[in-house]
Amino acid sequence: MAQDTLTLPKDFLFGFATASYQIEGSTAASNRGPSIWDTFTHKDPSPIADGSSGYIATDSFRRWKSDIEFLRSYGANSYRFSISWSRIVPNGGRNDDVNQEGIKLYRDIIEELVRVGITPCVICFQAFGDLVKHWITHNEPWCISVLGYGHGVFAPGRSSNRERSAEGDSRTEPWIVSHNLILSHAYAVKMYREEFQKAQSGAIGITLDCVWYMPYDESSAERVEAAQRALDTRLGSFADPIYKGHYSASLVASLGDRLPKFTPEEVAIVQGSSDFFGLNNYTSNLTQPGGTDEFNGKIINGFVRPDGTRLGTQAHVPWLQSYPPGFRALLNYLWKTYNEPI
């Protein structure tokens, strides 16, 4: 009986995930157009610590067959990868241009994955929907809006700390980006459900990222509230509209008029626009109030408990510590808060 409780179900997907710019290289091959990451990494001076770019990366454009063999050797039965849109629509979709060389590249990859028994997870309904049954619209939209438009450390490199938006308040831009990412996700889901899902029998959703925020001291109501505010801001800014139909009360109270509003028609499209709760989790943090960064709820994070012990095992980068109980706590929180398959 004990052994049965530790056995994963037969349909459990175990695998790996990559992002196109991080692995493909060959940024000008097969009629690929420039992406915002090309522009960002080629700035002078470079915003990348070692000055590198995705020009070569791990050369997966040429080595994808050996990459799939690596997946097989590690026992993977799933592979989530992203589409380089500048390889599919080099001119950004203008004039309905579609680069057939780009379509063929990803088609070949998907066909090989299916042939060797690895489930592909991507987004591009019409070209690949006969083989792909797991669709993800956006991966980690918080990183796009906050790191790309708030802190400026991701492409396109805009920073609300040093630039002013057209609305006159530069702090507004990341929230406008977040709002429109939610809408673009929801309308993509609407299209899939109306035009493709019945015939293709696939599932579609969005993948959000969140660390587990736990109070530095659970006996402190202020610190407990700070941890909840961090979850409402980092995770809830996307999850609450998609799964509940509205932004959280704490986010509305914090941002006021700077937070865009959904029309009733948009709420009807946004709410319920995911067949599952996609989650990326990296670490857990001990949280207390006092920070200045509104993009995570104005909190201070750390790994050291009040008694001086460390939360988990330190990883190779300073912002990561492994803490398995935190992952379990986050999963339980998601199930209780959103009641969705994760």
UniProtKB/TrEMBL annotation:
GO biological process: carbohydrate metabolic process
PROSITE patterns given in the database record: GLYCOSYL_HYDROL_F1_2
Superkingdom assignment: Eukaryota
InterPro entries named among the record's database cross-references: GH (IPR017853), GH_1_N_CS (IPR033132), Glyco_hydro_1 (IPR001360)
Stretches of the chain forming a coiled coil according to its record: none
UniProt keywords, alphabetically: Glycosidase, Hydrolase
GO molecular function: beta-glucosidase activity
Family assignment from sequence similarity: Belongs to the glycosyl hydrolase 1 family.
PANTHER family according to UniProt: GLYCOSYL HYDROLASE, LP05116P
Name this polypeptide is given: Glycoside hydrolase family 1 protein
Organism: Tricholomella constricta
Top-level taxonomy: Eukaryota, Fungi, Dikarya, Basidiomycota, Agaricomycotina
